[in-house]
Amino acid sequence: MERWVYGSLWLLFAGSLLLRLSRSQLLLPRALLHLGVLVLLQYLCQACLPLPLGAALTAAGGLALGRVAQGRRLPVAGKAVFITGCDSGFGKQAACHLDSMGFKVFASVLDLQSAGAKELRQRCSPSLTLLQMDLTKPEDIRKAQQLVQPQTASAGLWGLVNNAGFDDTIADAELSPLCKFRTCMDVNFFGTLELTKALLPLLRSARGRIVTVSSPAGDMPYPCLAAYGASKAALTLLMDTFRSELEPWGVKVSVILPGYFKTGTSCNPAYWHEKKEQLLASLPADLLQAYGEEYIHEINKQFVKFMKTANEDLSLVVNSITDALISASPAARYYPGAGMWLIYFIHHYLPSIIRDLFLKAFFINQKLPRALQPKQQNGLKHE
């Protein structure tokens, strides 16, 4: 009987723990500490107390530890945050959520007349400020700085959420035009770097937070995401460097590495069909002959099929952004999304050949380029 009672309690606690970990509502170090204390508590209760009292105390201890493990949250009142890429996706949802919590939100969009900008005006409070900004234009970044500075002069800027990102090429590195690598770097790396440096004096004044949405494609070699992945790899390393350098100033830096979510045009087949046709039209004849049009068509088809499985619930990422902004001890990295723990386990602990096979099995598995395919033998062989 005793074994069944304590076993049921452990099943309940373990299920709750795993659920909160999967939703990025609990950090792994806190979860392990939670688990260790529960083990000790159950051992003492089982050894020293009768079953009803021991089970009740274990259950009460588990609930109390659950609250403690979430960590202390900081007050929101009087805090201002700047979020990029709020036209759609994570940026738009984060702007709405943080505004509803009471933050003073500065939300940048590419187009003030876009559907996303109009939705933000309708859904959010009058305290939310919309501004137009293109991260590839230094003058836009200067205007954003000039807008934010007088409004945050007294308390500083509490948070910068670097969310804006760009990718419009699904192809091997050799097939991806050099201009696509430059555009990805301009938006995802250089633009983010320039904006972060422009706002750093305000962030240092507030001893605030920098939260950056990067990508697992910057940590591991996802097939056909070379341009995007290279820019995100540079971005992640930059933020890790900032985290170390800004620690004496009291500024905490976190990176969000989301799984597969439906954002903006990422799941629009028509968009990717158009980009595929543009790529085909831009390729040199010899390169197109070596790989074959059917090779590029197949890549595009697999990518569109994969993105149909993307999660439409963006709250997991928004919760991670929120925790990074208001947790007293935010994590350096957050991994919101189903199966991310498995992907990173394979990447870090298993041989690279297994990692590559895994990525091809669950993302894109390129067929052989035309030049590498066995030659078809027509007619009879002649001696």
From TrEMBL:
One of its GO terms (biological process) is glucocorticoid metabolic process. Transmembrane segments: none annotated. This is 11-beta-hydroxysteroid dehydrogenase type 2. It comes from the Eukaryota. The keyword Lipoprotein does not apply. The gene is LOC113406926. The keyword Isomerase does not apply. Belongs to the short-chain dehydrogenases/reductases (SDR) family. Pathway: Steroid metabolism. Keywords: Lipid metabolism, Oxidoreductase, Steroid metabolism. SUPFAM superfamilies: NAD(P)-binding Rossmann-fold domains. One of its GO terms (molecular function) is 11-beta-hydroxysteroid dehydrogenase (NAD+) activity. Pfam families: adh_short. It catalyses: 11beta,17beta-dihydroxyandrost-4-ene-3-one + NAD(+) = 17beta-hydroxyandrost-4-ene-3,11-dione + NADH + H(+); an 11beta-hydroxysteroid + NAD(+) = an 11-oxosteroid + NADH + H(+); 11beta-hydroxyandrost-4-ene-3,17-dione + NAD(+) = androst-4-ene-3,11,17-trione + NADH + H(+); corticosterone + NAD(+) = 11-dehydrocorticosterone + NADH + H(+).
